[in-house]
């Protein structure tokens, strides 16, 4: 009997270890690799955060997929991180996967299903044992299509759990979050910057993104599973095609566009004000900035949260003078050019920061 138990335990361990080799730990919402990940302040993005949480918690709604789209820098990842934290606190977070084009461990679709299955497996031992059984039955499952992985590692284990009557299914954590779908590439070891992909690479990336959306539709939405899936992405080809009239997700997805409907100006003002006040306490000078300074920076941001976040990081750099850096940033701000192109101010900001860093290196 002892030999049998030892062999059984060894078998289980081997199956779970194989799963662990095919997941992306850096993609977890609480991964150390994402330490200090951007998230919304308590009194910012209140309207859109409330809308997302209301959708997640309304389990009677027939739409079990939410697609949030927005331009780069509009705050999608910060919202996803905030929602992930709230769902985790409410014990309804089933799994989360944060893609990043610059991290080769979490910029491809092949690890998404395994990583989600790993997190779901931690919620109940029977779910976990069903995943292990699937991996033992077919060790090559991780090289199969996304749909095949999803069927074997998520759909069947959940059906086994439901048939077992060992748990009230309504209590199983059901929120699944996927951030940055547009940053999903075709294969590993491609160029880190998606803007530098050649035509074939870009098409392959789009195919993988479309494949993931189709698998979610087929495996989760078309099956009687209680999961509610929240996807955030730039409105790239795969997402636009799926959501447009006639697309696979057009009638089944709840859509949120981070546009003028959710004016972030007030949130950005509070974001900078709170942080500038904190800097004032640190340097012992609460008058180092003015309200007009903040209004100027918020206007230049053109609705892009990444603009004010980048400004704060630049101004608050250690061993630098916040007042001097604020003065420098204000000299870079050009409203006329910003109106000509929505991202002119952001382009100018990055360019000037790079030039400033170069000049500082040369002067040493």
From TrEMBL:
Pfam families assigned: NPHP3_N (PF24883)
Family matches, as Gene3D superfamilies: P-loop containing nucleotide triphosphate hydrolases
SUPFAM superfamilies, sorted: P-loop containing nucleoside triphosphate hydrolases
Superkingdom assignment: Eukaryota
Keyword tags: Repeat
Domain Nephrocystin 3-like N-terminal: 51-187
Keyword Repeat among UniProt keywords: yes
Protein name (database record): Nephrocystin 3-like N-terminal domain-containing protein
Organism: Candolleomyces eurysporus
Taxonomy of the source species: Eukaryota, Fungi, Dikarya, Basidiomycota, Agaricomycotina
